[in-house]
Specification:
The protein has about 500 residues and is an alpha/beta fold. The chain is about 40% helix and about 20% strand. It contains 15 helices and 22 strands.
Length: about 500
């Protein structure tokens, strides 16, 4: 273990042990050796963090204060993170397993998110509304209060800060529960809050088990909204808890995203983009392009190109420069992915490439799975419908565009879709008919802090990012004033 290997809860600006004194060991997914210990928060810790955040909301000048002050603090936090980007990227890689290149991109995205929301913090404008008579009617956008954020392990810092940053910019105070497997970068970022000028108690991080601590946070009467990213199953649970308390829930859930390849596509570009969209982050992406829907005339050519890319992909510990795919986050996730591959084969799928644990003796201790492509599955097979969350692509052929659209829309999810074609009219036509919150044309999965990110159907509720994302952390108050002058007597 490295010297800086003990992490606590970060509440009221101070880091300390959990109320129950418990801590857990975290493993490097490339070796399954311990890298750090982290405090395991309890329901008591949840209550304390919520109380601290509520006091900070009422008592500090964060919420009620000048938006420009929040803007400066968030811009400073962006700068502090940028200065330490390499340190954060290494920590993310050691904890989660993704390659250093991927972690650097994630940290860069967080820096840009903080910069983006800092620019909006003093621009939360209301409107004036014409009403009859001598009256003035206007709206004010106010912060909600304490917002709770529950983050997953696949982009630990990025997905935490994607909702925390706009909530802070809008003047809320925050309690963040990172995933139990990957809490380190979020805790380390919260350590920088004071230096950035964010008052103590405004940003609190409480690691601990979702079922107990996460639920306690959402149930707490001080919780004014919850933002959750993770599985659809837990998303449903969060939505039910939020409904009981009548608080808003922003849910960013799973996907089984289609990649439609029309016969005129640039197949070399498409193959590279498709590979990035399913083997990137070892396939552990809510918006992984996990279903290839390819025109039958180019199917064999494209599958051969994908196979060549998959077999040339360099696997290894994410910390090694030049490695292109890291391990899966945990042994459990590895077992889950291999089980899906087995079910695909049982259901008649043909392995084009991969399908097994990767790396031989060199990588035996880590959670490495080969980049995998399966062809010939029925669209209703389990592995073709459910989210695998690993580097496994299922391929389906189509003849007519209508069939491609039908196949693309045939799952319960609707997060993301990609279209590959050189024809602009076809691109628009297909994009319009896809039931997905985000569609890209001739691109791998790609998003920016200023563009909305959210899913249709069972992929979620609401959206994060962009100016609207920030508005979601505010409420609208309408004020009506009678400004009639007193009638003159006589
Ligand atoms: P979960 O949905 O269980 O976890 C996501 C977050 O929710 C974690 O912080 C977790 O805490 C927390 N959590 C779990 N249960 C509750 C609860 N009852 N109340 C409040 N918070 C809770 O994902 P898993 O880690 O179990 O991954 C399983 C599968 O989910 C993946 O294989 C993948 O298919 C999908 N997933 C999708 C993601 C996405 O980006 N859409 C991200 C992660 C997973 P803790 O870590 O303590 O369990």
């Amino acid at each position: 273990m490295a010297a800086d290997s003990t992490y606590g809860l970060l509440v009221a600006g101070a880091e300390g042990p959990a109320a129950g004194g418990e801590s857990a060991e975290l493993l490097d997914p490339s070796t399954n050796r311990p890298i750090a210990r982290v405090a395991v928060g309890t329901a008591d810790d949840a209550a304390r963090a919520m109380e601290v955040a509520q006091r900070a909301f009422e008592g500090s000048d964060w919420a009620g204060g000048d938006g420009a002050r929040r803007a400066r603090s968030l811009a400073r936090l962006a700068r502090l993170l940028d200065e330490r980007a390499e340190e954060f990227a290494r920590l993310e890689t050691e904890n989660m397993g993704k390659t250093l290149r991927e972690s650097r991109i994630d940290v860069g995205f967080v820096v840009r998110t903080l910069e983006y929301v800092s620019g909006l913090a003093d621009k939360l404008e209301g409107t004036t509304i014409p009403v009859p008579g001598s009256r003035l009617n206007y709206t004010v956008r106010e912060a909600l209060g304490v917002t709770v954020h529950i983050a997953p392990w696949n982009y630990p810092l990025l997905l935490a800060m994607r909702s925390v940053a706009p909530a802070l910019a809008a003047g809320n105070t925050v309690v963040l529960k990172p995933a139990s497997l990957t809490p380190l970068t979020a805790i380390r970022l919260a350590r920088l809050a004071r230096e950035a000028g964010i008052p103590d108690g405004v940003l609190n991080v409480v690691p601990g088990p979702g079922g107990k601590l996460g639920e306690a946070l959402v149930r707490d009467r001080r919780c004014r909204s919850v933002s959750f990213t993770g599985s659809s199953e837990v998303g449903r649970r969060i939505a039910a808890l939020a409904a009981e308390r009548l608080i808003p829930a922003a849910l960013e859930l799973g996907g089984k995203s289609p990649v439609v390849v029309l016969p005129d596509a640039d197949l070399d570009r498409a193959a590279r983009g498709i590979a990035l969209g399913i083997f990137g982050n070892a396939g552990q992406m809510c918006w992984a392009g996990s279903r290839l829907i390819v025109h039958e005339s180019v199917r064999e050519t494209l599958l051969a190109k994908l196979r060549a890319i998959a077999e040339a992909t360099r696997l290894g510990p994410g910390t090694e420069e030049g490695v292109e795919m890291g391990p899966l986050v945990s042994r459990d996730q590895e077992a889950r992915v291999l089980e899906y591959v087995r079910s695909a084969r049982d259901d008649g799928g043909r392995l084009v490439t991969g399908g097994a644990k990767a790396g031989g003796d060199r990588l035996a201790e880590g959670n490495f799975v080969q980049p995998t492509v399966v062809d010939g599955l029925a669209p209703d097979a389990r592995a073709a419908r459910e989210e695998i969350f690993g580097p496994v692509l299922s391929s389906f052929a189509f003849g007519e565009v209508d069939e491609a659209v039908r196949l693309a829309n045939a799952t319960a999810y609707g997060l993301f879709a990609a279209v590959w074609t050189r024809d602009l009219a076809s691109a628009h036509h297909v994009a319009r008919r896809l039931e997905a919150g985000m569609v890209v044309v001739n691109e791998p999965p790609l998003t920016f802090p200023q563009t909305p990110f959210g899913g249709f159907k069972e992929s979620g509720l609401g959206s994060e990012q962009g100016a609207r994302g920030l508005e979601g952390y505010t409420r609208t108050k309408n004020v009506l004033l009678n400004v009639a002058l007193p009638k003159k007597k006589g």
